[in-house]
Write a structure and sequence with these properties.
about 20% strand; two-stranded antiparallel sheet; globular; single chain; 6-stranded mixed sheet; about 40% helix; Glutaredoxin; alpha/beta
Amino acid sequence: MKKTFVLVVLFILPLVAYLFFASGVNNFGKLPLLPEGVLDIPENIDKITFENKITVLGFLGNKVELKKGNTFNLNQKIYKPFYEFNDFQMVMIMPIGTTEKVEELKSELGNLVDIKNWKFIFIEDEEIRAIFNSLKTNLRLDENLGTDYVFIIDKNKNLRGRTDDEEEDTKYGFNATSVAELNNKMEDDVKIILAEYRMALKKNNADRKN
């Protein structure tokens, strides 16, 4: 039993950790940079910013009830595995006037997990369009200022995605209606970008010691 325990500690656990951070189509490489310089959240809104954060960005629109399934998928498949990382946040851009619906949604999400890193930002319609357009994707907001797609923004306010996706070539965002896409693609990509920053931090610390 002791030998088995030692083997697990020495070999199995490091392998599991490696697979956690290195899985995915990019095999522990960097996620490609897509458009740089995504427009940040307007100043003085709850001190929330994309800068120095790894952000999953979404646009729920006026019809929050139509996007509840998306948020539950994201909550289970993306938020729960990563929300305890200090630099990780989920930011949903909301039209003004949706506060009551969002409070109901937050209450439901909060029954499943601590929602401290779910952020809901209420801004004017034109500001919503401006942020979305700054992503420079091949996607569009619907008539309710919402979309089923969510996006990964890095600490330098750049959009990250895939340039060699087997289905879309350039993949700007992830369809939150698809549990398979969140499981098989987005989760991997969030792991990769978290690992990228962890490696950069370790390198910086090592350089300082030298």
